[in-house]
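dumping this here before i forget
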Amino acid sequence: MLDGVTPRIRAVPSRRVGPHVNTRDRFADLSGATVTVTGGFGLVGSRIVHRLRTLGAKPLAVGRLDAYGSCVYSSVFGISSGDVDVVAGDITDAPLMNDLISRSDYVIHAAALADVAECTRNPAAAVEANIRGTQTVLDAAGRHSGTLRRTVFVSSASVYGVGDGSPDAGARFIEDDVLTPGSIYANTKLWGEHQTALALGGPDDSYAIVRYFSVYGQPQVVKENSHSWVVSWFAMRAALGLPLHLHGGGHQVRDFVHVDDIAEATLLAAVTERADHTTLNVGTGRATSIRQIADLVRRRHPGAQIIEAPRPQGDPLGACADTTRMTKVLGWAPRVNIEDGVRHYLQWLEQTPEAIPAWLRSEAQAAS
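structure:
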């Protein structure tokens, strides 16, 4: 029994589950299937869309074009509004979502205003995107429950709260922990979890909830006035000769999960029978401090200066994921460790300098 609910047996082929199973074999149900991916213009959504394409699925990527500069989507994320499987639109558009989901076998709901700082500055925007938008997607999914195989709701480790920042104490977030969200963003994600279970709790419905820990990896691009995505922040600042700011000494810890592993786990949650009606952490089970990330970046940029700064209000001390349920249910574990992931990101950034946004380049020019 998971989450207090006995998983229902669904009429899908049974497959052997184990950490060493070839995941491509387990994605056979996706071949030829139509999958609506909300947030398809974002980092995670675009990676999921690319993975679906390689698996022979038919993704329908829907999202807005206002999160980054326009060149990011086509040249960096590899997603264009001109692609036949891409739709530029808003998830609060009920007729649009109903049309897309009516044609779909699966839904991956990854769209969100996912910037904690932006949600704090603009709560109304967080509510519009993360609550109204999620309800619109769930309404459409509920209307087509007879043909929809599963909806996956993308949540966040932020629902657990601030953590205690103890990488050596074995502190881990477990799915059944009491949840104490400490930000507006986290509140909206927790609401989305509860609403998904409520809206898709009928006998003909199937859903899974995945709680992402700290996503990083190419082609991640930083956003102005944000303190999230520390790997890309440090990498881009070091590449431009700007100092690396260690807020609160950099002792906060995160469970960094490479975006390719995130995409794989999300799709496994969509097709794995045992994931039905479950909530799963998606993490590595390893806590890495922000200071350690700075040290990894400085291996390639030894001249990068470190500046100590106060810890922002609400910045979590952190902990890592308990991955017991994820491993048991999905029969899978992440493949990219943080050392390799940071090194690959730095190499990619050297080969893709256009990923560094113009506003950050302007900051570097002003500081020189």
